[in-house]
Amino acid sequence: MTVLVHLIVTLGMLYVIPAGLRLIDPAGLRATARIWPLLAVPGALCLWLPRGAIATALAALYAAATLALAARAPARLLRTPSPPTAGGSPFAPAEIAVLTALLSPSVAGTALVAERAGYRLFGFDLDVLALTVPHFHFAGFTAALVAGLVCRAGASAPGAAALSRWAAYSVPGGTLLVLLGYFVDDWAELAGAVVLTGGMWAVALLTWRDIRPGARDRTTGTLLATSAAVLVATMLLALWWALGEATGLVHPTVTWMAATHGLGNALGFALCSLLAWRRLTPDRMETTP
Length: 289
Hints:
Elements: H1 2-24, H2 30-46, H3 53-70, H4 72-79, H5 83-86, H6 93-117, H7 126-154, H8 161-183, H9 186-211, H10 218-247, H11 254-279, H12 282-285
Helix pairs in contact: 1-2, 1-7, 1-11, 2-3, 3-6, 4-6, 6-7, 6-8, 7-8, 7-9, 7-11, 8-9, 9-10, 10-11
């Protein structure tokens, strides 16, 4: 499981985040996206070293980059026009999703430093901290970003506006509830999983029904279809696992979840979604949040 999780996290650090930054703001975050792989190298390297001072120092370098990225969120919030002046809102659903994406890697970076140092941050087991790293690269960063993109693209589609707003609010909300569930109990985490799954299934439905038919080539359409189909299965697994943890019912092991839910979300959803959105028409790219 460890090797698989490390490979998934490496993908998130080196490709997923810089690709996502280009979708968030192709102009404003262009420089950050270009240098991000270099900033992420220490984080990727520390995964493959034994816990200790060197691994912790490398993790801290990556965490500093994620905190600098999180600092972009308040600045973006302040410069987002309000409804009376420009027709936008810093609290619009798509914008909330994007702000969540900017903040999420810092949670992963902080957990990484603690795990590499062998420090049980907030009393959590090191295995929990290790799994927090991929969770907030993919469920935190990528899922929130894609929810925001789908919300913005589908906002004007007939019948899609309400569902797209629900997706853009519930994916960040569900991610936050899952995080809070770590501090409360398994039932609170289950509630977060329910909300997050509902939001992700809404993203899958909107992607399949409204975004995919507008793809101008077969490759983009296939990538969108794959991302939507994978979400249905992987989030069903997430619900099964959270329900089992809360009730004691039989459920997948952590190792099995990493090999199915984790790998499916990383490759089938996150990677396919980002590749598809980068291939979408320039005019749609301009409508990204």
